[in-house]
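thoughts on these tokens:
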Amino acid sequence: MRTSKKIVSLVLAVMMVMSMIVVGTVSASALDYVAENLTSGGSFTTLEAAIAAAQDGDYIILLDDCEGNGIVFPQDKFPTGLTVDFSFCTYTVSGTPVGSKGTETSAFQLLKGNKIEFCNGTITADCTVNPRNGKTLLRMIQNYSDLTLDGMTVSMVGAYYDQTTMATANGSTTINDSTINAPDFSRYGSAYSASDFGGAALNEGTFSTYQSVSVTVTGHSVINGDVKIDDDNNKPFALNLEGGTINGGITLDDNAQAAIDDPSVGASIDKGDNFKVYVAKIGNTYYEKVTEAFAAAHDGDKIDIIGDSKGAGVKVVAGRFPTNGINVDFHEHTYTIDSTLVGSTGYESQAFHLEKNNKITLGYGTITSENARMLVQNYSDLTLKNMTLTPNNPNYNNYYTLSNNCGNVVINNTTINANPTPGSFAFDVCRYSSYPSVNVTVKGDSVINGDIEVSASKSDPKDGFSLTLESGTMNGDIVLDQTAKNVMDATPEKAKVTKKASFAQDAPEGYEWVDGGAGQVLQRAIADQAWIKGFDNNISEPAVRIWTNLDRTYLDANADDYGYVVAKVSGKEQATANFSLLTADGGNGQKVISCKGTYNQGVGHNSTKDITLKVTGMEDGNQVAARFYYVINGVTYYADYVNVQTYDGIIATYTV
């Protein structure tokens, strides 16, 4: 019946024009008419005037493309119906928007108590044009009526945040064979989408005292953009997807999700078998699942995530994107991993598993999961830009949100949240197994909520590892595994933890930040060294620092004021003791003495072994001023001076 009505309207319009031509009564001004009322009669120079004059049950037809102000459909004016047939013409809102007092931000405001049909045409607006009343155009259609869109295209050029093409808060809306386009923000660059600006194609939500709202999408309709659902007053809502496509996600706010979860509310989302919701695309090819987009991608491709979605974990095997990489732009959307997890064979417990020899960028979105035991396992060159990583698995302790075992990782303007369970870390820097190296940099306005762990398999640095804190905020501790301490002690040039002086972060217990050129370097603190105190009762300050590392101890010494006298180790009593990195300097009154290190059962960091240092070969009465020191990364750390007036005596004994 709807089709025959449209055909009749077109025939009547042609007959009216033909009759006026025959009788010769058409004036030049008739050419300015843009709308006709085929029921009550009348020709109008604006669509706004035609709707203002319309009566309940009328049928208005548009005669040509035109533009004008926003239009209000007053409450209860068309209780049995009003049809506006655009006749394949376009109405552009270029003037004053409309709406409730103080919120005049809509192109069309359709108030309750009406039945309205728009068919066969296009409604659009370019929001780069300043509205005459200074109000921002945020909605093309704000609907509270029973509305049908049949064969319509509704779109807008976006310019502001939170613009939504169509919003409905009451009544029953049917979208049949129609296209709803989210605001077009390509004027800011082809990479931008409506979701980057908080926009959407369609918003459905209960509001204020309105009792319920429903939207049905049917036929061959296309929703290009997100569908957002919100619940303001715990009232029932329904989204029925019977036919068509959504090139975007369906997002529910917390209240809407709670309404869905509570059967007593009567809220529902129903998707028919023939309806497709696309959540990702590569170029102009769309995918219903994020995993399908990753599977189809090639080196150098860009994946656009165009909707919130839930699905399986993502695995990128070694060498998939080695040269030009893969760029994944989430466009402010969230991907929730709630089904099949991924990982190495036998260890499929992760949401994302990114193997080596890949260049991967994840940007502008959120990854979360309640069932994964690790959110991202990374071996690739990975860049996180404006991302949020948030696990929420209450049943798994010792969780790593982001585990970095290889590659160069940049965390930029990104928030990483540790899982809210004991022993969990926001991320780690773990030089793992046979993998050569791993380097992690935190920069921009990143926020690390949780601890960072640093470690190295078998205390082997391979090609090295590093953690660099350039800028951002860390709400947690740096935790050095014993393997990391071993490597940092033995080969400090291969294991570096550094930060900018402006980055506020405490050093781990037993360590301190030391100025080292462009930033601060993490090194063992004075209190964590093995100090040897003077044997003479008159000597109360430390004379020697011994920096211990399992079976290796580094001992350097220098002196001044009395001439340069350097102690060097000339012997050892046990094979487990190994002094190294010693230097000898000459100077005025040079004397060389021998120091023997005696280790009872060897020595290890934080062990409880006795260390005895003897000075031998000195004549009675010689005076030696010795200042012991050690050097790391070009920085010298001195002990205090001690004067020695003895011979072949024990000058110090210390228990580590």
The chain has a mean pLDDT of 79. The longest strand covers residues 82-93.
